[in-house]
Amino acid sequence: MALIVLAAILAQVLAARKAKEREPFSIIVLPDTQKYSRQHPEIFVEQTKWIKEQRDAFNIACVIHEGDITDHHTEKEWEVADEAMGILDGIVPYAMVLGNHDLGPEGTLFNKYFGPERFENEPWYGGHFEDGNENAFYLIRAGGMDFLILCLEFGPRDEVLEWANTLVAEHKHRRIIVVTHCYMYSDDTRVGEGDEWNPHGYGRENDGEEMWQKFVKKHKNIFLVLSGHILNDGLGRLTSTGDKENKVHQILANYQMQENGGNGWLRIMTFLPTENKIDITTYSPVLKEYASDDQNQFQVEYSMGRGGFFDCRSTGRTCQETAALF
Length: 326
Hints:
Layout: H1 2-21, E1 25-30, H2 34-38, H3 41-54, E2 60-65, H4 75-86, E3 94-96, H5 110-114, H6 116-119, E4 125-128, E5 136-142, E6 145-152, H7 158-169, E7 175-180, H8 208-214, E8 222-227, E9 235-241, E10 247-253, E11 266-272, E12 277-284, E13 289-290, E14 298-301, H9 319-324
Parallel strand pairs: 1-2, 2-3, 6-7, 7-8, 8-10
Antiparallel strand pairs: 1-11, 4-5, 5-6, 9-10, 11-12, 12-13, 12-14
């Protein structure tokens, strides 16, 4: 009788744990903050303070910065970014990419402030390509699923895409989010030949369409690509089918042309595992309001059942052991 009671209790505990793992969670996206770093540091700080304060309410799994962290790539602007992003240290994982404004004639100050040393003791830091964090990956677990957030340089070089292809192929058990500064255009297509602000115009190698052809479309486990950079209304989205018949959602957000360099607008991507949907909303901690138009408030479908993706443990290795292979 005691064994029966114990088994029943254990079953309840396991069921509760499983239900908790499938609870909704959020990823917060910070579009171009360049004008905040230069002119309105208080807005940048307000964004990250809000994230810290709302971590539990939104069950925030991580924060993603889409690049153009700074405007003129000065020490002062990087110090603003350091202060703002530092609010999240020890609170929530975050991943950042470089934009064209984060680069100078002699390289970037990014690694002085956000290099590998800043993250190397974090369990969610996966590693990097070459010497710095211009191309890096981050390992996140949320909603009972294992994610890899892959951050790629502005207009990535072919050798970077080769590294990315290998990395993603070797992490088949993880669901991949690709982040790069320039990928989608404001007409709901990928940035390609003839588009304004194409990375080629900055002496870079691959634009959005080339990234799709050489890298993104090849992998079943890539489901989301996030980018900023493009002006006009700074908004766009496209769902494409990859080579493995998988759906890839590609989303642009950039509010820098609005008042005060963007008025603090950020994206809240709420994953609903039991509904297989992602809710995308846009909120400003400065204005304390949501954007209500359908370009800023929409939903995409994404299967969050097992469906060919596996927990790290199903590979026969722990997540740490798997990550250590690469």
